[in-house]
Specification:
284 residues, mainly alpha, two-stranded antiparallel ribbon, 13 helices
Length: 284
């Protein structure tokens, strides 16, 4: 009898403890750094982390900003990993190095998005094997002196923890998987390969895409996308020929312009791409 009473007592006690731990409003769970991160801001950082739009934490350091601006492509994430995050296996398969820009990385960040948030944070922040901020990039030569310049910057010297978490949130949550946005055919190998884009928008809806365009884009780009040239191209030609880049600019903004980041779902992007694929409505 005593045995059964003890079992009953501890069962009741355990239930009370469980209920207390899970229903006590005085002990809320603190959101993690990843939960609090801003993935859209991370997309801006990925483009150019010291831009005005990024609200860079070290923007008051004039000497640092001057160094970053003088060697821009050695610090921008998009230069080494591409707008599509596929590195030199994607659209940047033909973006060879120059004295003012490094080789494109062979790392596929799109696949690494499946890593845990903590692992991605630690990998971005680690200093071992990374290029120190003091390195003189004016001596970079893609043939004779590329080793240090091709290294990833030591972001522990450049970014705050909050900014790194924003990048992680971008990589895992806000960045779009372009493989589901358009088809791409890559021929050859880096740095002399080629990329051809097709089937823009894949299973998107062109009618909805035109509505999205009229609501968000027409005031600047015009009904047919010819009002505001993009690198001397119409909007239609730009999206079709630079499908890898356009999706990032649509969602996260064109830095240094009035085109700012705004909420865009993946379905919105598919619809927009499907609409802009029409060369009659959006001619070259």
């Amino acid at each position: 009898m005593k045995k059964y009473l003890l079992v009953f007592f501890f069962t009741i006690l355990g239930s009370a403890i469980f209920y207390s731990c899970n229903n006590n409003p005085s002990t809320p769970t603190e959101p993690s750094s990843y939960d609090k991160a801003d993935g859209v801001k991370g997309g801006i950082l990925y483009d150019k982390f010291w831009s005005t739009e990024a609200s860079y934490s070290k923007s008051a350091d004039a000497a640092l900003i001057a160094k970053l601006s003088a060697s821009s492509d050695f610090f921008r994430c998009k230069q080494c990993h591409g707008w599509d995050r596929l590195g030199n296996k994607g659209a940047y398969i033909n973006r060879g190095p120059k004295t003012n820009r490094p080789n494109v990385s062979g790392i596929d960040l799109l696949s690494l998005a499946n890593e845990s948030a903590d692992n991605l944070f630690n990998d971005i922040k680690k200093s071992a094997g990374r290029r120190d901020i003091s390195y003189n990039l004016s001596s970079y030569d893609p043939v004779a002196n590329a080793t240090e310049g091709d290294k990833m910057p030591n972001f522990s010297q450049l970014l705050s923890d909050e900014e790194i978490w924003n990048l992680v949130k971008f990589l895992k949550q806000e960045a779009l998987d372009v493989r589901n946005l358009y088809d791409a055919t890559y021929t050859g190998t880096y740095p002399t390969g080629s990329a051809i884009f097709s089937n823009h928008g894949k299973d998107g809806n062109a009618v909805n895409g035109k509505t999205y365009y009229n609501n968000n884009c027409v005031s600047c780009h015009g009904v047919d996308g010819k009002t505001l040239p993009l690198e001397s191209m119409t909007l239609g030609k730009f999206v079709r020929s630079k499908a890898n880049e356009a999706q990032h600019k649509v969602k996260f903004g064109q830095l240094g312009s009035s085109m700012t980041a705004f909420k865009t779902t993946f379905q919105d992007m598919k619809n927009l791409y499907k609409a802009v694929a029409d060369t009659v409505s959006f001619p070259n």
